Amino acid sequence: MEPLYQFDANYVKKYGLVAGVDEAGRGPIAGPLVVAACILDHQTPITFLNDSKQLTEKKREAIFELIKNNAVEYSIVILGVEEIDSLNILGATLQGMRSALNQLKTEFGIALVDGNKLPSKLNCPAEPIVKGDALSASIAAASILAKVTRDRIMTELHEDFPYFNWKKNKGYPTKEHLKALERYGITEHHRRSFHPIKQELSQNTIAF
């Protein structure tokens, strides 16, 4: 059995079906936050399943399709910049995790949540797993669902705002992104509660 599935096996033995939860997009200064929950079929393991950060884009895309086609069930929640700015990034993350789990129709025994915090008011047992996307198959699957979905969104947004090169930097504050921000100003897709954007706003930068 592959190590990530072996990690989940103890939970499967005790609780039955396991739902993994992870997010993509906490660090960027532009674009949405995406949260996914996934219940895997542990009788048919997905080959090469791993933490999304350890996979090439091509492999993530391929495994993304395998997860969608072979998972017992999955859900994907997208939180826009307005929600991020209103709730703060941690609050948006926890709300997204709760929503993703609530959207699952399949009964499961426990949720394994990436990180060290759990959403409040969950309707199921849950356990936080620090660096869970590198340990748990279920969390790794959720991380891939979230990462690929968000990357696709940023690639689409790139077409309207090519000078930020979101297709490459995915909204993270790279030097290229920050220089474009100084030159062109902020857009509706920038997170106004994040420091570089607040700084631009304080300087009366024109916003698109």
What does this structure look like?
This protein has 208 residues and is an alpha/beta fold. The protein folds into two domains: 156 residues, 2-Layer Sandwich (Nucleotidyltransferase, domain 5); 41 residues, no CATH class. Helices cover 46% and strands 14% of the residues. It is built from eight helices and five strands. The chain has a five-stranded mixed sheet with strand order 3-2-1-4-5. A hairpin with an 8-residue loop joins β1 and β2. α2 packs across α5. The longest helix is centred in the C-terminal third of the chain and has 24 residues. It is globular and about 55 Å long. The mean pLDDT is 94.
Helix content: 40-55%
Mean pLDDT: 94
Q: What Rg, in angstroms, do the CA atoms define? A: 18 Å
Coarse morphology: globular
Whole-number total of structural domains: 2
In short, what is this structure?
This protein is α/β, with parallel strands linked by helices and 208 residues long. It is built from 8 helices and 5 strands.
Give the key terms.
5-stranded mixed sheet; 5 strands; alpha/beta; Nucleotidyltransferase, domain 5; 46% helix; 208 residues; single chain; globular
Task: List the SSEs and their pairings.
Blueprint: H1 3-15, E1 18-24, E2 33-39, H2 57-70, E3 73-79, H3 81-87, H4 89-103, E4 110-114, E5 126-129, H5 137-160, H6 166-169, H7 175-184, H8 195-202
Parallel strand pairs: 1-4, 4-5
Antiparallel strand pairs: 1-2, 2-3
Helix pairs in contact: 2-5, 3-4
